[in-house]
Amino acid sequence: MKRNRAGGDEGHERHGANLAALRDHNSEVLLGLLRDAAGNGASRAELARRTGLTPQAVSKITARLREAGLVTEAGRRASTGGKPATALRLVPEGAHAVGVRLDRAALTVILVDLAGTVVAERSVPLSFGAGAGTVLDVVAAEVAALPVTGRTVLGVGVAAPGPLDHRAGVLGQVTGFPQWDGFPLREALAERLSLPVVVDKDTNAAALGLLRGPHAHRADSFAYLHLGSGLGAGLVFDGAVHRGARTGAGEFGHQVLSLDGPECGCGRRGCLEALCLAAPGPAEAARLLGVGAANLVRLLDIDRVVLGGERVLADPRPYLAEVRAAVGEPVPVELTPSGPRTVAEGAAELVLAPVFGRG
Known about the structure:
Blueprint: H1 23-37, E1 42-43, H2 44-51, H3 55-67, E2 71-76, E3 86-90, E4 96-102, E5 106-113, E6 118-125, H4 132-144, E7 153-160, E8 164-165, E9 170-171, H5 185-193, E10 197-201, H6 202-212, E11 222-227, E12 231-237, E13 240-242, H7 272-278, H8 282-300, E14 305-308, H9 310-314, H10 316-327, E15 333-335, H11 342-355
Parallel strand pairs: 4-7, 7-10, 11-14, 14-15
Antiparallel strand pairs: 1-3, 2-3, 4-5, 5-6, 8-9, 11-12, 12-13
Helix pairs in contact: 1-3, 2-3, 4-5, 6-11, 7-8, 8-10
């Protein structure tokens, strides 16, 4: 594997600046525009106009990107009276990223190209309570089994159950798994994999993938609600993933709906997660999820609700119906377009988004 950097913080799409100190920044901005343009590409003049960079700066930067194998020419534009402009496009196979989804009962690893297209995928059962050493061994083995020979791998994005500190890459008090509290997951995996590693909560990763990835919503604000082995939310405000000042935002499943309800793994009673997981069937779980989703929409005034997770995807009709009825107009409620890969694709996007100037 060839090594490169990975990382980045949440934020908006950035504009170019004609300063030598921002050479990497400008490269990211241009790569982001070419990724958005997909196969149609963009001319150097178009890139200059959209970024505010000089044509000379764009030519120098794109020359470097072409030399690195990340950008190539894509034919000439139709003439509008002068010399036809040459279009440039992203080379998806120029680099790759690994996405790892650590679930309580399963592990999924994927390899994606620069466009976010899945090149390879592996999935195996996993016992998250088996201990850090065992879990890390399984992750390392599955990542090593991906077809990465001869490819440039930028890094590994890991989506794990929360809460966690995404800046430090340290897990928090994961419901039902207190032994992981304080574990330095990023540092431990980077040592095992010999690659840069980025760690975030599974729902945050999913939200980032839906915001920036190949199935991007391009919505300013939305909530991704994930009901699987647990219940959580990924929140997007003003075009950026919202993690909170203490990185604890999105613990949607631990809002208390019933003071005398069933005990939750977090230690409280009547949490929405506990109620949904204990529901006698999808219809009741969907009704409860609708109540929680309506609370969220009324509190945050978001533009859209996206549903995902194994329980939802196994029988989506009642969940869509109940959440739509509870939320009401004009907020649309829809199923994640990425299906069961939503979290894993989002994990890979943790690595890719900063490459394109977007965290």
